[in-house]
């Protein structure tokens, strides 16, 4: 589907959108001023004025074309204003995860040589105050919110966003020509952003993405996925990650869709029913939680309720597979009895979800499809702007990440001898492709310019032929890409067998007893697992069975609880090869989270951190 305006740069995207919607009162963004308030909409006319105002302020305070400006903020309207102002004057957006500690913020600020630092809350302003003196290029910090501790505002380099906007509004007439001239000079080859990788294997690297990189990805995605100006997206994944930046922000704007900001990741369930989105961009964790809540409800229900649900699932699956006639009549009844309740919990207007950032288990995707809630799964890296492949509406194949995007080429390279064994471009139709798996490579206009100030690391990632090496393992299945795992996640057991933990871990995601699971067993005679229980299910079971305990650690040690997980691991391991089976486990009493360091901001497991933190449990498993 074409974009609503023509553009070759992100600057042109903004300029042409504001021209198209000028005077129409068309909603661009929406936010909740307070927890108890309704959503407040913001028109494109207001966005245009606010972006001009911020652009004037930045120009007056010495931000030149090519200068880096950093943002440490949750998803919110002010983030978009700053970003669009930077695109207008040729600045480079450097966004940071709000979960980063001060020392990592300091590293990125120093490495990018950022001049101005925007922060959201008082918590983030405190970080900025701690590192400011160590960042020689930084000359100003601008806070979106007034901090509770107002002494932070005593520093001469700190200014409130409202003050900056007030100044910008006054000086805009004097800076208008400069802003106009800069906006006309921006080319597709200019850098638009530095997106720093999460740094799970060392210091973060700044991925250099040009206007061409991102724009090519937006346009290619629009050819695969229909987004229009009747759509509304709920934004909650971090905008400092390339998935949300391209798919949930720029691509939505390019389709004329409205962007509603969730108050936080924790309020997504409530915000869905308030915002009534038609599209939600998410990582699989959201779908896993919804699936497990529904499964738990059915498990605790009556025999009749279970029978009705199983029947509805069967009908929904037949309908999703294209069967009609009597199935159509049955589907209406299944919706009324079962699925409409689920749709109401998502706001009642969902056209489709988009899933990325990690693999979505096929069983969970099929559950949503049967309910009439389409999930379009895609795949890519920050270094590919980010989308390389995606399924299309009505042609979803669960367990794959879909076809290669137009303009992009994806190849499979054999791990043993680096021979390319399969290759497809977005313009190819499926041909006889090898089913052999190997490393996934990518070539195209979406591939990054390189890593900021890291030429050697860039050469390691992108070879002389222009192929970017993803580090992921996969293969083509009927012209669609299937991801197996990460090369660096591969476990080599004591018998010399290569084992990919990802697919094994996916098998356990539908268990009502398991919240998170990490497979371990490097150089060991068998595989084992660290398991974070679903504490809500476990505590409910303990109450029902009259099991007494003072602390969760005590509950996990009880034999009847251990037996639940012995049964669960044995049952689900039956489908695995002998060397893949989970032979032992240890229960972990704390959830893996971003805040405690075991998860990346996009909720992927940091295996090295988990293995270090819980090394004593792993040692205990294999001590014999």
TrEMBL record:
It holds the Pfam family AMP-binding. The keyword ATP-binding applies. GO terms for molecular function: ATP binding; long-chain fatty acid-CoA ligase activity. InterPro entries: AMP-binding (IPR020459), AMP-binding_CS (IPR020845), AMP-dep_synth/lig_dom (IPR000873), ANL_N_sf (IPR042099). It comes from the Bacteria. CDD domains: VL_LC_FACS_like. One of its GO terms (cellular component) is membrane. This is Long-chain fatty acid--CoA ligase.
């Amino acid at each position: 589907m074409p974009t609503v305006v023509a553009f070759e740069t992100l600057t042109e995207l903004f300029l042409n959108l504001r021209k198209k919607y000028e005077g129409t009162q068309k909603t661009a963004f929406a936010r909740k001023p307070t927890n108890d308030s309704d959503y407040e909409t913001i028109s494109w006319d207001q966005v245009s004025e606010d972006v001009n105002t911020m652009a004037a302020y930045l120009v007056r305070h010495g931000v030149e074309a090519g200068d880096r400006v950093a943002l440490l903020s949750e998803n919110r309207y002010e983030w978009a204003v700053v970003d669009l102002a930077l695109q207008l004057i040729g600045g480079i957006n450097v966004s940071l995860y709000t979960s980063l500690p001060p020392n990592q913020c300091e590293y990125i600020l120093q490495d990018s040589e950022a001049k101005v630092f925007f922060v959201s809350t008082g918590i983030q302003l405190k970080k900025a105050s701690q590192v400011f003196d160590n960042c020689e290029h930084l000359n100003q910090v601008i806070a979106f919110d007034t901090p509770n501790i107002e002494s932070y505002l005593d520093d001469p380099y700190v200014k409130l966003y409202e003050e900056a906007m007030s100044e910008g509004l006054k000086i805009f007439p004097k800076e208008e020509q400069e802003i106009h001239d800069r906006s006309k000079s921006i080319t597709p080859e200019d850098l638009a952003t530095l997106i720093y990788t999460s740094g799970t294997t060392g210091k973060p690297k700044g991925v250099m993405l040009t206007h061409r990189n991102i724009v090519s990805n937006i346009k290619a995605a629009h050819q695969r996925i229909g987004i229009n100006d009747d759509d509304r997206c709920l934004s909650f994944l971090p905008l400092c990650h390339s998935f949300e930046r391209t798919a949930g922000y720029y691509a939505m704007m390019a389709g004329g869709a409205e962007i509603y900001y969730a108050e936080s990741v924790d309020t997504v369930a409530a915000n869905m029913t308030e915002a009534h989105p038609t599209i939600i961009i998410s990582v699989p964790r959201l779908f896993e939680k919804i699936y497990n809540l529904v499964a738990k409800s059915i498990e605790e229900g009556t025999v009749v309720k279970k029978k009705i649900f199983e029947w509805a699932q069967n009908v929904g699956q037949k309908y999703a597979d294209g069967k009609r006639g009597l199935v159509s009549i049955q589907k209406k009844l299944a919706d009324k009895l079962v699925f409409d309740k689920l749709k109401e919990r998502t706001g009642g207007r969902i056209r489709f979800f988009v899933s990325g950032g990690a693999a979505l288990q096929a069983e969970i995707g099929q559950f949503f499809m049967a309910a009439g809630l389409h999930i379009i799964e895609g795949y890519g890296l920050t270094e590919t702007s980010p989308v390389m492949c995606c399924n299309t509406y009505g042609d979803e194949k669960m367990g794959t990440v879909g076809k290669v995007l137009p303009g992009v080429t994806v190849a499979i390279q054999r791990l043993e001898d680096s021979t390319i064994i399969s290759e497809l471009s977005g313009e190819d139709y499926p041909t006889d492709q090898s089913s052999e798996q190997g490393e996934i490579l990518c070539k195209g206009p979406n591939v990054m310019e390189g890593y900021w100030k890291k030429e050697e690391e860039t050469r390691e990632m992108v070879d002389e032929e222009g192929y970017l090496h993803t580090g992921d393992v996969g293969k083509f299945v009927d012209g669609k890409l299937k991801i197996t795992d990460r090369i660096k996640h591969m476990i080599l057991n004591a018998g010399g067998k290569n084992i990919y933990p990802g697919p094994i871990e996916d098998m356990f995601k539908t268990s009502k007893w398991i919240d998170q699971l990490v497979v371990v067993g490097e150089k060991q005679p068998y595989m084992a697992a660290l398991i974070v229980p679903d504490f809500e299910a476990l505590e409910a079971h303990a109450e029902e069975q009259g099991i007494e305990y003072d602390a969760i650690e005590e509950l996990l040690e009880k034999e009847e609880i251990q037996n639940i997980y012995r049964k669960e691991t044995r049952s689900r391991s039956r489908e695995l090869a002998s060397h893949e089976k989970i032979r032992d486990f240890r229960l972990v009493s704390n959830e893996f989270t971003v805040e405690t360091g075991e998860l990346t901001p996009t909720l992927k497991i940091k295996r090295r951190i988990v293995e270090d933190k819980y090394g004593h449990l792993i040692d205990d498993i294999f001590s014999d």
